[in-house]
Amino acid sequence: MTVLLAAAHAPVIPNFGNPSSFACERANRLFCSDWVSHNWSTVLWPALRQHLVLTLIAVSLGFVISTTLALIAYRRRWFERPVLIVTSILYTIPSLALFELLAPSLGLNRTTAEVALVSYTLLIMFRNTLTGLREVPDEVRDAAAGMGMGPLQSLLRVELPLALPAITAGVRIATVTVISLATVAALIDNEGLGVPILTAISNEVFKTELIVAGGMAVGLALAADGLLVLVQRWLTPWARARSA
Amino acid sequence: MHDFTEAFKFIGRDGQIPGAPPLPTLVHLTLETLKIAGIGVALALLIALPVGIWLGHIHRGSFVAINLGNIWRALPSLAVLAIGVAFLGLGLDNVELALIVLAIPPIITNAYVAVDEVDRDVVDAARGMGMSGWEILRKVELPLGIPLIFAGIRTAALFVVSTTTIAALTGYSGSLGDIINNEASYHLPGVIGAAICIAALALLLEFGLALVQRALTPRGLKLTEDPGVTFAPVAATDVA
After folding, report:
1. Structural domain count of chain A
2. d(CA A168, CA B31)
3. Could you tell me which of A34, A129, A165, B37 has the fewest CB atoms within 10 Å of its CB?
4. CA neighbours within 13 Å on the CB side: how many for B164?
């Protein structure tokens, strides 16, 4: 909100840097490389870095919370349904609405953004982790018990490793989802790649900034997705042979 | 809390502010949101459903169908809208194009997986009974695939409604997102009120579509599956 109001009063020619001529910017061509090089270190790179930080915090917190919930639901079946209902409702609320609903009580800051972003990761990672654990064959669990493993040992050394493909798949989906939603977070928290996008819109639809910032958000999400696929393969080499 | 009470009063006044000139009503904006989203989903269905079902039926193109779903997740809706605005300018065209781009992948992926994964033995049995390829598709594969196909449609519909409201940020006016984008006229209670309406709209839509899905699912399938109405369906590729 503050972002937009502030932007509404911004001068017509925005952060164009100080090149000798603004010809490309004035004509609002699709891509002005001068503008990009002048604003890379002051606008674009900081936005990308903030975006990464927002995402890493949200996914880490979400991972801790949802794994805890999944482990409880794995041991106590009745716990699954209430968690599913609450997390699905959180997941269903459109991001724009959730950010605005949290802002009045939590303020226009990073905490609010993180609370909303974390709430979108819970359903995904909870469901994947629980499914992964449940799909461990009974015989394997029995074999672990037969070898003298206690419940905790069996969980840590047998069940969790076998659930790893599903768990990492959950982390992957959650990460990409958060990267996507963090662009909207710019509305309540003045950081991330959403900021240059919203600035460009309010500056008479400045095309270069829209394309570059939008492209960076897409690129970041694709890169994170690819990286996590590699992590997934590295962590679970046995899964590759099966599902290639 | 005061802001929230005021927000509900704002909803009670159908989005009007006392003393201010008449504004578009909440009912009008809600219907507009549904209209914009509806057109997007309908066009996406028209394109994606036949493609996904056909690819599943002939068991070809799994690479494309599955990876499309993965790439789709990596498309931030605000970024897609922003890039669209840069190329097409502000307007309904740009918004609908973004909505279609974002709605096609989950529909294709789910329809593909739904039809592709129908038990081969069942399909063989149908063929043994003398059914043609078309009959197998219509009488066997589609009924059995309905839950998953519909889950894809629900995912897409929800995503499209959410994106429709975000479109207001990129300057397209005509949805409930307008109120959120215009705090200067609506003030904080109006913004919260609109957020409540958007959240309620999405939850009602999700619940309604879950009921439709249940009604469409063949009776035989309901016997073996969880009878509860599940919320926020999993996309076919979500759980590894």
Report:
1. 1
2. 40
3. A34
4. 30
Task: Report CB contact under 8 Å: A132, B240.
Answer: yes
Q: Give the DSSP letter of residue B240.
A: -
* Contact criterion met (CB < 8 Å) for A221 and B198: no
pLDDT over 60 at B230, yes or no: no
Query: Which residues in chain A have their CB less than 8 angstroms from residue B181's CB?
Result: 4
Longest dimension (CA), chain A: 78
Flag whether residue A102 sits within 8 Å of chain B, measured between CB atoms: no
Are A95 and B166 in contact (CB < 8 Å)? yes
A133 touches chain B (CB under 8 A): no
User: Which residues, in sequence order, are CB contacts of A80 under 8 Å at separation 6+?
Assistant: A73, A130
* Domains of chain B by start residue, with CATH: 2-12+25-217 (1.10.3720.10)
Q: Look up the ipTM and state it.
A: 0.85
Domain presence at residue A163: yes
Does A211 sit within 8 Å of B75, measured CB to CB?
A: no
Q: Is the predicted pLDDT of residue A1 greater than 80, yes or no?
A: no
Q: Does A163 touch chain B (CB under 8 A)?
A: no
CATH number for A238: 1.10.3720.10
In a domain, A30, yes or no: no
Closest CA of chain B from A144, distance in Å = 24
Which long-range CB contacts under 8 A does B135-138 form with residues at least 24 apart?
Answer: B137/B53, B137/B57
> What's chain B's Rg over C-alpha atoms?
21
Q: Under an 8 A CB cutoff, do B188 and A104 touch?
A: yes
Containing structural domain, residue A172 = 37-243
- Cβ-defined contact of B79 to A197 (cutoff 8 Å): yes
B204 has pLDDT over 90: yes
For chain B, percent of residues with pLDDT exceeding 90: 33
Give mean pLDDT, residues B114-137. 90
Residue B86 above 90 pLDDT?
no
Chain A residues whose beta carbon lies within 8 Å of the beta carbon of residue B85: 201, 205, 210
